[in-house]
Amino acid sequence: MDLYLLPSRISYDPTRYPKYIPEAYCLCKGCLMGIFGEESLHFRSTPVFMPTVILRRTPACAGGRYVYTEDYITIPVGCTCVPEQEKEAESANSSIDKQEVKLLVAQNKPSSE
User: Fold this and answer.
1) 64 by DSSP, 3-state: which?
2) Residue among 30, 33, 35 nearest 84 (CA)
3) pTM for this prediction
4) What is the maximum alpha-carbon separation in the chain?
5) What is the number of alpha carbons within 13 Å of residue 47 lying toward its C-beta?
6) Is 106 helix (H, G, I), strand (E, B) or coil?
7) pLDDT tens per residue, range 26-42
């Protein structure tokens, strides 16, 4: 997918090379689903990030030229859909709840004679 097809903002920093970096952003809270492309709030639109290397200008000069250092940043390059988690589902996945379920199953299990 080409970045220029996504909605994007241009990040500008005069002390960075490149000075301009396009950053994608998500237009919807939910995701466009179904044959008519309706927004579904059962999914949420979330940005996808990519690490990238830039050059950051330092205050130092060498031979009349700027000195740059390598820096790593993450930039949003697109959006994807992830399922929206239900509050009940989140609590059922905790390790404490799993231990409680194991204890209840063990208590209710008929003992073999």
Assistant:
1) coil
2) 30
3) 0.63
4) 90
5) 15
6) helix
7) 988 999 888 888 898 99
| Per-residue pLDDT tens digits for 68-86 | 999 999 999 999 999 988 7
Taking Cα atoms as reference points, which of 79, 77, 75, 83 lies closest to residue 27?
A: 79
Pairing relation of β-strands 31-33 and 38-40? antiparallel
User: By the 8 A CB rule, do 84 and 43 touch?
Assistant: yes
Please give the helix or strand (H or E) that residue 17 lies within, else none: strand 16-17
What distance in Å separates the CA atoms of residue 24 and residue 77, rounded to the nearest whole number? Answer: 5
Q: Are 52 and 23 in contact (CB under 8 A)?
A: no
What HEC string does 43-55 produce? EEEEEEEEEEEEE
CATH T-level fold of 3-108: Cystine Knot Cytokines, subunit B (2.10.90)
Domain ranges within the chain, ordered by starting residue: 3-108
Residues with Cβ < 8 Å from 62, sequence gap 6 or more? none
